[in-house]
Amino acid sequence: MKHGKRLLMGMLLLTIFLVNLAAPASAYSYGGYKWNANYVVPKIDSSVPSSWTTAIKAGATAWNNAGAAFTFKWITSLANNKVYCASAGDTYLGQSTPTRDGNYNIGYKTCFNTDYSWSTASGGESGKWDVQSVATHEFGHWLTLYDLYDSTDSEKTMYEWTASNEIKKRTLDSDDINGIKHIYP
Ligand SMILES: [Zn+2]
C-alpha cells in the first residue's frame, strides 16, 4: 500500500495490465494463487510495537468475518509467515511479499515501513498512517488479492493508495468480500 497519488511510468503500465485482468462486473483483482489450506497462521515479529497487536489482528479479523472459507489463525505460528517493521525509505507504507510453490502460497511477509509515522488510535490521527487500515489491505494480499488502481475503486480496501488519517480501509467493501469468497468459496 502506498501513500499519495504519484504515478510512475511503471505503475501506469502495471495499472493498464491489472485493469485488463479485472473483470468489469467484479471489482477485485485475483492473482490466481492461493493457500493449500483454508487458514494461515501469521506471526507478529518482535520488531512490531506491542501496541500494534490489536490493530494488526483486527485487520485479519475483517477478512475472517467476510463469510469465505478462510481464516487467519493466531495459534503457535509457523516461521514462514510474519508481519514485521523495517525502514524502507520513501517507498511504500506496507508491502507484502509471497513465497510460492507453483500456484500455492507457502509463506507471506508483510513489512510496515518505519520511516512513516503510524497510529493505532480508534478514530485515526492527523498526519499519521493507520496501522489497522494498512494491515487489512496487506492481509488482502495474503489471500492473494491484488491492488486496485482505478479511482472508482477508492472506497475498497484493496485500493492501492491511502491518505494519512484514513481509516475506511479497515472495513471491507462488498467487492473485497466478493474477492475472498471467489478464492475460498
Ligand atoms: Zn497493496
Automatic annotation (TrEMBL):
**What top-level branch of life does the organism fall under?**
Archaea
Any Pfam family hit? Peptidase_M10
Recorded GO molecular functions are: metalloendopeptidase activity; zinc ion binding
Q: Which BP terms from GO are recorded?
A: proteolysis
Keywords, alphabetical: Hydrolase, Metal-binding, Protease, Zinc
The keyword Membrane belongs to this UniProt entry's keyword annotation: no
**InterPro entries (alphabetical):** MetalloPept_cat_dom_sf, Pept_M10_metallopeptidase
Which SUPFAM superfamilies does this UniProt record tie to the protein?
Metalloproteases ('zincins'), catalytic domain
Looking at the record, the residues that make up the Peptidase M10 metallopeptidase domain are 105-184
List the record's Gene Ontology CC terms alphabetically: extracellular matrix
- Protein's name in the database: Peptidase M10 metallopeptidase domain-containing protein
Q: Which organism is it from?
A: Methanosarcina spelaei
Lineage here is: Archaea, Methanobacteriati, Methanobacteriota, Stenosarchaea group, Methanomicrobia
